[in-house]
Design brief:
Rossmann fold; six-stranded mixed β-sheet; 22% strand; globular
Length: 199
């Protein structure tokens, strides 16, 4: 386990960011459970097993839901994040459009700081298919264009939440590549040391 990775979880208000985190980390969220107050900021820390089998510690920053009146992520999240989990609701076209705005902000940061940032997008609430406003193909095409991974999930099925989190953690914790330059010492014979200044 190396450094603690920082993941900012963001999206519109009411898309289920907190429910996703509480369900995938603790398994405690009950579908239909109303939140008592809107999130301002909560931090969740979890040990996640990557697809390489290593266990990594991740700190998730559950951010305040963005609105059309206040669509910008606070700057401190943009500067400190190693990765982003973008969340929208499949039942809200507006929440999907919000991600386009957020992704532009992330891209500006990447261009400015030349920083490698991993992004995964999830469409929550697929169990409410009769209320769907965002088609899978629409979201999938956008994710391909933006070069980000995309999953549809529901907090009603905890296992659907695991893969996006594991995938993001695995991307954030890829070990440095080993050098292809190798030195063989089998046939190496050091030269005899020469003294300088001898006559």
């Amino acid at each position: 386990m190396g450094k603690i990775c920082k993941v900012v979880v963001c999206g519109s208000a009411g898309v289920g960011k907190t429910a996703v985190l509480e369900q995938v980390i603790y398994g405690t969220h009950r579908v239909g459970q109303e939140t008592t107050c809107p999130t301002i900021e909560d931090i969740y820390v979890a040990n996640i097993e990557t697809n390489r089998g290593s266990r990594e510690r991740v700190r998730f920053y559950d951010t305040k839901g963005l609105t059309s009146i206040n669509p910008d992520l606070p700057k401190q999240y943009l500067s400190m994040a190693d990765g982003f989990l973008l969340v929208y609701s499949t039942t809200s076209q507006e929440s999907f459009k919000m991600l386009e705005h957020i992704k532009k902000e992330i891209d500006k940061l990447k261009d400015k700081d030349k920083k490698e940032i991993s992004v995964v997008m999830i469409g929550n609430k697929v169990d409410l298919n009769h209320q769907r406003q965002v088609e899978f193909r629409t979201a999938s095409d956008w994710a391909v264009k933006e070069k980000i991974q995309f999953y549809e999930v529901t907090v009603a099925n905890r296992s659907s939440l695991v893969q996006p989190i594991v995938s993001l953690t695995s991307k954030l914790t890829i070990p440095p590549t080993k050098s292809t330059f190798s030195i063989s010492v089998r046939n190496f014979k050091p030269k005899q040391l020469q003294s300088f200044g001898d006559s």
